[in-house]
């Protein structure tokens, strides 16, 4: 028993470490590209378009990626996307060397390809975690994954802002290649990923996608939670895409201060993820999820009312620490509930549909975000996001199927466990 326990713990540690090392280099490059666009153009429309390209593949491809995740080799699904992202980093770096600047169209293509790669990785990671850890450790492990992602978000902006100021952009982009090499070696040589029996029969992507939709819609409580999450994304994503412009244009800050805001927000996320990772075995996980809507929405809404000066910026820092602390609860706890709601061989297609629905409204909001921010001011997007997020929390409170979803889920699982034990 002890040997098995130590094996899964070591395996999970190596997996999380690989995600940390590959994630941090990728995020440094991602931040550098966004800061480059902000500094070079100062346009909310350009920033929102760049963010749309980063989200569009998730919306369009996730439902069809899900069935593939259920069937394909999980290690390949983790490694190949990193190599593709590294290839486009090399192309972008070479173009910067030859032309002494980065054509906007090539930056946009690079962002699009990075997003396509991530579209394959996200449901793969979400689908393999339940196969790597004991079921009772799911919530904690998702919390630990959230901590890894938050740690990346803390370190990457700080390191990225420093490197952005001292290293040519064409060299900084090549960090993606280093991250891909490290991740490939660790996943390929040292991480064990249990593979389920390959599903027999021809792959009918549309059929499997339809099954994923049906399985999600038939689970009414989870379906309503997904709709609320999609509305939240619609209202929140436009403001989230404008953080660099909010700092550098509205508050008249620097690239370093733009990096500081990302560090502070992510530091809050790390603290929130640590709470989940250590004490995450709550009997009703929907309670902290609903509270998180208010803990995110109120500080974000207030941020849009701050004065556009350096005094306002430091209040912005404090408010984002609070919002950051609350952010992991929705994604992390919801993911644990989803993973316990479906058997492992169905998770890929369900997660593909769910990720697509949660991401669908983001680009819709971003289509209007850039022109709207240029017209009424970027700070007003934060007011809209804050009010909308609070309204999502209120709706969740007044929907019994949403409010009581986890209690009912745990009751069903307990009944199933007792039935299996009796048999």
UniProtKB/TrEMBL annotation:
Q: How does it sit in the membrane?
A: Multi-pass membrane protein
The lineage is: Bacteria, Bacillati, Bacillota, Bacilli, Lactobacillales
Residue span, Major facilitator superfamily (MFS) profile domain: 11-404
**In which compartments does the protein localize?**
Cell membrane
Regions that span the bilayer: 12-37, 43-65, 77-99, 150-167, 173-191, 222-243, 263-282, 289-307, 313-338, 350-369, 381-402
What's one GO-annotated cellular component? Answer: plasma membrane
Q: Which domain of life is it from?
A: Bacteria
- Membrane as a keyword of this entry, yes or no, is yes
Q: What is this protein called?
A: Major facilitator superfamily protein
Molecular function (GO) terms for this protein are:
transmembrane transporter activity
**InterPro entries given for it?**
MFS, MFS_dom, MFS_trans_sf
PANTHER family (UniProt xref): BACILYSIN EXPORTER BACE-RELATED (PTHR43266:SF10), MACROLIDE-EFFLUX PROTEIN (PTHR43266)
By its UniProt entry, which Gene3D superfamilies does this protein fall under?
A: MFS general substrate transporter like domains (1.20.1250.20)
Q: Which keywords has UniProt assigned to this entry?
A: Cell membrane, Membrane, Transmembrane, Transmembrane helix, Transport
Q: Which organism is it from?
A: Lentilactobacillus diolivorans DSM 14421
